[in-house]
Fold each of these.
Amino acid sequence: MLDSCAEQGVTIQIATPHFYANHMQPEDFLRNRQAAYEKVVDYAGEKEISLLCGAEVAFFRSIGYSEILDEMTISDTRLLLLEMPFREWTSRDLKEVELLLRRGIHPIIAHIERFYSFQSDKGIIDDLIDMPVTIQVNAEALLSWRTRGKMLKLFRTQQAQLLGSDCHNLTSRPPNLQQGREVLEKKLGQTQLQEIDTLGMQLLKKYHR
Ligand SMILES: [Fe+2]
């Protein structure tokens, strides 16, 4: 996967293994993540990829008050990749996101495209987008005709700001950032890509601890 990422021009990669508070102990998660990091960090270096540790934290009740989040943010920053629940969202869910913001954590909402089908009132997604969070789209969503139009519109209207990609394996969910970037470039122009790249670097700096 690192070979593939290097070929796609990736120079900074944020590894975000899933963290599920309901069935994982934070200490176990952090130990496993560290062990995995140590296995690949030198190889990443050979590929001129600087590898950062993060986590894709699945939403859980009272996440707004959780004390474990400082360990789950992207290395040395207050950026948190947050996976919203795969169900109908409530105003209470959005309150939790608000609590995160209030305590200085900046949520990056993972793969926004995956949540539309769960909401009978799509307005609640707009409500989240309107909050001072960063919205991420998965490259996969730009490759499927089902989601492409909607996601291009989100980028065009600056409602979505970041593009990420899967990196689960080399078969069913391979890293495919480059393919997503090609779609963005073709449809919205080179400037769109520059904006994404610049914002990524800015966020790492702005929210550095
Ligand atoms: Fe996810």
Amino acid sequence: MKAYNWGILGTGNIAHKFTRALILLNNAHLYAVGSRDAERAAKFATEYRITRSFGSYEEMVANPGVEIVYISSPHTEHLEHTLLALRNGKHVVCEKPMSVNASEVNIMVEEARKQGLFLMEALWPPFQPSYIKADEILKSGKMGRLLHMRGKFAFISPYDPELRTYNMKLGGGSLLDIGIYPIMDILRYMGEPDSILAASVLSPTGADESTSVIFKFGDGRMAEAYSSFTTMGGVSTEFNCEKGNLIHTRGRDRNQHLVLEFPNDFDDRIFTPPAQGYQYEAVEVMNCLDRGLTESPVVPLSFTLTLARTLDAVREKTGIRYPGRDR
Ligand SMILES: NC(=O)c1ccc[n+]([C@@H]2O[C@H](COP(=O)([O-])OP(=O)(O)OC[C@H]3O[C@@H](n4cnc5c(N)ncnc54)[C@H](OP(=O)(O)O)[C@@H]3O)[C@@H](O)[C@H]2O)c1
């Protein structure tokens, strides 16, 4: 089995979680970490026994040993950091959202294609065992046709203009941070809608505290997505089909629960594997590279572009504006 040298770009919250997941994989070698600050990089390297640490992203991506760069900077920095890695000949996994608007995502996709390198948005849920099981059930025909979906991702993150999640210069707001997940689900299972209705509640910085979106399809199907930093709404996606419902939730225990409901067979809990398995997306990246692929068939770049265009359309309707980065 070929082992790949990973380089972690950025040392924030998700970089820690993703690095801990990489440790679980025999073919992932924690080779390098780059930070804007040399001491932070060195501390991170010591904590996870990473071979090399660098006090700048430029040095890290230029190192010939690095093969895959994991971009964990804030959304607004993804474009610059992804291009930096690709232009240094590295494969890239970039945190979600790929960038703050679709035209920037297009630039990233074109660069990866030009360089013949792998690029994937770090949309981890489709690689989770519970998600794969949900796919299997929905595709089996057991539930009948999928007519309606309702997805939500909401938790309380008190207002603080200094936080990344409320700072518009860093792409703040619930839509791009967490609303992206229910919207991803809806696009994956129902396709692109014919029309979108949407509204947001904006915080004093202009970041959306909460966003609600309704998707309408020409053939009568509908879907709703909700994201919020002001309610304990939790994380779930409900699939309402002709013959029953499938409910996919992340419980308070942080495990994923899949519940099937039929009129005569209610609340049949069938699957509770662990959540937050970031290793599954890393496995996908290395499997793709083993097969010589430059994108994942599960989260292809065409999907990332559709998702970015949909998020743009929602922002257009709700008045979420990123200074100088709207389109
Ligand atoms: N997949 C998931 O489940 C998940 C979960 C949370 C977040 N995310 C995504 O991951 C990205 C980072 O989120 P996070 O919560 O990890 O953020 P965070 O804790 O603020 O960390 C971001 C890191 O990016 C680096 N950075 C580079 N340029 C920066 C700038 N101008 N301002 C601030 N930091 C900068 C910093 O590392 P250095 O100082 O070391 O350079 C910082 O520690 C976001 O795009 C978010 O959507 C994904």
